[in-house]
């Protein structure tokens, strides 16, 4: 697992979502974030509050693909990685803050521009 995280080829599979307000939900469908070198693909649901009314939006703001992003990676040395990803071409998302563990567990905190933040827990695994 550590090699996949270090090489930038991993997939995060969300199994629970925790909105800033309201109750947490167990996800019954497959929702993922895939980092495969120079491509970030996010397919996550959004539960939370919009501070401005999105006009004509029919999909989740966390459903996108980007090749224009910055990534900062920090290993704590105890099997824990902190990874911050900013998609420069996605207006609504400010940053994805991942905490990945070599045992496969993972957390994701998402900061958005005009919406309340949302968090996910799940598993991380190598891209096949």
Q: Mind telling me the C-alpha Rg?
A: 14 Å
> Low-confidence parts, pLDDT < 50 over ≥5 residues?
none
SSE order in H/E notation? HEEEEEEEEE
CATH domain fold name: Lipocalin
> In order across it, which strands form the biggest sheet?
4-3-2-1-9-8-7-6-5
Q: Figure out the total of helices.
A: 1
Straight-line N-to-C gap: 12 Å
Task: Indicate how many domains the architecture comprises.
Answer: 1
CATH arch. level architecture: Beta Barrel
In terms of quaternary structure, the protein is: single chain
Overview features:
single chain; mainly beta; nine-stranded antiparallel sheet; 1 helix
Describe the structure.
With 128 residues, the chain is mainly beta. It has one domain: Lipocalin (Beta Barrel), CATH 2.40.128. 5% of the residues lie in helices and 57% in strands. The chain contains one helix and nine strands, in the order H-E-E-E-E-E-E-E-E-E. Strands 4-3-2-1-9-8-7-6-5 form a nine-stranded antiparallel sheet. A hairpin with a 2-residue loop joins strand 2 (25-36) and strand 3. The mean pLDDT is 91.
Can you describe this structure in just a few lines?
The protein has 128 residues and is mostly beta strands.
């Amino acid at each position: 697992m550590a090699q996949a995280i270090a090489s930038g080829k991993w997939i995060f599979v969300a199994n629970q979502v925790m909105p800033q307000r309201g109750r947490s939900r167990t996800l019954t469908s497959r929702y993922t974030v895939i980092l495969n070198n120079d491509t970030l693909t996010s397919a996550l649901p959004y539960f939370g509050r919009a501070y401005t009314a999105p006009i004509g939006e029919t999909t989740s703001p966390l459903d996108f693909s980007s090749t224009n992003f910055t990534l900062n990676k920090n290993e704590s040395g105890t099997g824990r990685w902190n990874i911050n990803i900013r998609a420069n071409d996605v207006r609504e998302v400010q940053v994805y803050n991942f905490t990945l563990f070599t045992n496969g567990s993972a957390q994701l905190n998402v900061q958005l521009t005009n919406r309340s933040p949302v968090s996910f827990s799940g598993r991380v695994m190598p891209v096949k």
